[in-house]
Here is the input.
Amino acid sequence: MKICSIMFTVGWAAALAFGWMALAAPQAEPQALLVLHMALSALGAGLGLWAWVRIRRGC
Here is the structure.
């Protein structure tokens, strides 16, 4: 249960951090970096959601 809780926290923290970096990026930032931030944000959200489902089921 502790591992799932850590994965939940890290996943959503990554989603928020990289999502913010993607949204607040200046116009001059390379497009590839924006795509990377969006992909890492989606990966973090997926990890957080997966960990939440595991916690709900009792891990």
Observations:
- The helical segments are 2-23, 31-56.
- Residues 2-56 form one domain.
